[in-house]
Amino acid sequence: MTILRKIYETALRWLWPEICPFCGKASSRGICGVCRKELEKLKIQEPRCKRCGKPIARMEKEYCHDCSHTHHHYDSGLALWLHGKPVSTSIYQFKYHNQRNFGIWYAREMAEQFALSIRRWDPDLIIPIPLHSTRKRKRGYNQAQIVACELGRRMGMPVDATSLCRRIPTSPQKTLGHRERKANLRKAFALGRGFVPVPTVLLVDDIYTTGNTMDAAADILKRAGVEKVYFLTISIGQGY
């Protein structure tokens, strides 16, 4: 471990004391034993949708209802947990209450649970889903970027947090219906002029609902020459 890394981790512990990112209680292990048991209940088991990774009812089905009726621009992806408590409350604290250190734990779980999939995808770049500049200034950080950077460090893969940008300040997806979500994200993303396309990109975000955000980002990447686009998220919804 480098001296700079030690300084960085000491600063993190000073700014954000070691607490369980799911219940907020002090825990030297990060995720406490009680919450670990709750997370196991939300962990997505097989059978999974081969496209988005949501749980499906029957082994003989390959895709969830949403992916069976939707063309996705991304190739496939995975999520750590279903979007229920305590995951949903943890992500809320991470995004809106400056609990940036939670992102370190999410990335650690991604690296441990999905190491084989990430190696199989073999991404040339990890790219976080961006926030619009106005929202990022208000929040002070991009939560997806925190997870992506830590994941890249753990997997030894480069992270590009500048090339993909959100050029229009879209409305929060959770407030919109399915059709409105697609329209909301149409032309939302742009790539910097200096972006050099690579064969494979791994997108990272906090929550997957319908997949419209991932699709919009994957679409512009593929139009620029990227061949394969995969994704990882902390949680995924169900019901689409």
Can you put this structure into words, describing what you see?
This protein has 240 residues and is α/β, with parallel strands linked by helices. The protein has one domain (3-236): Rossmann fold. The protein has helices at 3-15, 33-42, 65-68, 87-96, 102-113, 115-121, 133-139, 143-155, 178-185, 212-223; strands at 76-82, 125-128, 164-166, 189-191, 200-208, 228-236. The strands form 2 sheets. It has a 4-stranded parallel beta sheet. Strands 3-4 form a two-stranded antiparallel ribbon. Helix 5 packs across helix 8 (143-155). It is globular, with a radius of gyration of 17 Å. The model has no long low-confidence stretch (mean pLDDT 89). Residues 11-67 form the Double zinc ribbon domain. It holds the Pfam family Pribosyltran. Belongs to the ComF/GntX family.
Keywords:
15% strand, Rossmann fold, single chain, alpha/beta, PRTase-like, ComF/GntX_DNA_util-trans, two-stranded antiparallel ribbon, PRTase_dom
- Mean pLDDT comes to 89
Shape: globular
Strand order of the largest sheet: 1-6-5-2
Structural class: alpha/beta
Record field, number of beta strands: 6
InterPro entries: ComF/GntX_DNA_util-trans, DZR_2, PRTase-like, PRTase_dom
Domain Phosphoribosyltransferase: 199-232
Pfam families: DZR_2, Pribosyltran
Domain Double zinc ribbon: 11-67
What can be said about this structure in brief?
With 240 residues, the chain is α/β, with parallel strands linked by helices. The protein has helices spanning 3-15, 33-42, 65-68, 87-96, 102-113, 115-121, 133-139, 143-155, 178-185, 212-223; strands spanning 76-82, 125-128, 164-166, 189-191, 200-208, 228-236. The strands form two sheets. It has a four-stranded parallel beta sheet. Strands 3-4 form a two-stranded antiparallel sheet.
